[in-house]
Design a protein that fits this description.
The protein is mainly alpha-helical and 233 residues long. It contains nine helices and no strands. Helix 3 packs antiparallel against helix 8, helix 5 runs antiparallel to helix 6 and helix 8 packs antiparallel against helix 9. It is rod-shaped.
Length: 233
């Protein structure tokens, strides 16, 4: 085996001496196609996961941005209507704004006249529903961020198995072109899995931060509304 390796190395040196060395380049498509069927299937799965993660991220990002837009004068108008007993006008204003904060305040307005504890409970229940709506499909990003690298490592194991299998059937001679398919599968799937995992992880954390800001906004407006109802007439 050692003699074979030395002969192959000597032939490579002679080939370079006979002519100009050729610089080889490898595109991403060629790299994926060189990984065999197993590598291509895993890359396709990871690509679909990346597309799904990208769609969820931008869909949720636009929805959260729309939910966070509330007129700074909204609560002042609500308190003015409630102070003057214009409950219907306050409810109409909440319906026109159509945001998590307005729906939350609208639920509280519909409970005016009942004990303050009942209004607070209604606001908490409505808040949970609004938070659930904001976090819709966000958990899938967390799943993709964990599953992406694992699927990539699965491709790595499959690639190494293929490489070892080809090595065992090589009859005592080592040829890199025979091992290339398995090695390409191992490396490309690992890189692809890590890319998908990193992108999904960053997207998930960014949406969590954006959602927390909306939740804080809802809590602040709810407390302001309850404080106004608790003020002495």
């Amino acid at each position: 085996m050692l003699n074979t390796l030395l002969q192959n190395a000597q032939q490579g040196v002679e080939a370079i001496q006979d002519g100009e060395p050729v610089e080889k380049t490898l595109s991403i498509i060629e790299l994926i196609s060189s990984g065999g069927v197993a590598g291509q299937v895993i890359i396709a799965v990871l690509f679909l996961m990346l597309v799904l993660a990208t769609y969820i991220y931008f869909e949720r990002l636009f929805a959260i941005k729309a939910a966070s837009k509330v007129d700074s004068n909204f609560m002042n108008q609500i308190k003015d209507h409630v102070s003057h007993g214009k409950i219907d006008s306050a409810q109409i204003l909440c319906a026109q704004v159509n945001s998590p904060v307005s729906r939350l305040i609208g639920k509280g307005i519909s409970r005016i006249g009942k004990p303050l504890a009942d209004i607070n409970t209604a606001l908490e229940n409505a808040g949970r529903l609004e938070i659930y709506g904001l976090e819709k499909n966000v958990s899938m990003l967390a799943t993709i961020s964990g599953a992406g690298p694992m699927i990539g490592f699965l491709g790595t194991v499959i690639g190494m198995i293929l490489a070892i299998f080809e090595l065992a059937n090589a009859g005592g001679t080592i040829q890199m072109d025979v091992l290339a398919s398995g090695l390409y599968t191992a490396m490309t799937t690992t890189v692809a899995g890590l890319i998908v995992g990193i992108v999904a992880f960053m997207a998930y954390n960014h949406l969590v931060v954006k959602t927390d800001k909306v939740v804080y906004q809802m809590e602040a407006n709810s407390l302001e509304f309850l404080d106004h109802l608790n003020e002495p007439s």
